[in-house]
Amino acid sequence: MDILEKLMRAYFISDERPHITVNKSICQSCSSKECLYVCPAQRYTLEAEGIQFIADGCLECGACRISCKSGAITWNYPRGGFGVRFRHG
């Protein structure tokens, strides 16, 4: 089973409180916008009003938090019972 097949088996339990928040005032000053490129689930998009993050589908890897040198991304573990679920290894 290749990585794409494994990722297709993941499912997500949504929470009304996202585990990641983006401080848009800090984010606006970032010129590299690395979060757009490092997220394997492509949960970040660049819109007219700035970076948008959609929590549903997040793999919870933390790559965005690590790559954000400006500190605009706050990452917390999802509350119990919410977030990504991986099936079949």
UniProtKB/TrEMBL annotation:
- Asked if the keyword Iron belongs to this entry, the reply reads yes
Show the GO MF annotations.
iron ion binding; iron-sulfur cluster binding
- Keywords annotated in UniProt: Electron transport, Iron, Iron-sulfur, Metal-binding, Transport
Please state every residue range assigned to the domain named 4Fe-4S ferredoxin-type: 49-78
Q: Tell me where on the tree of life, at the top rank, the source sits.
A: Bacteria
- What protein name is recorded for this chain? 4Fe-4S dicluster domain protein
The organism's lineage is: Bacteria, Bacillati, Bacillota, Clostridia, Neomoorellales
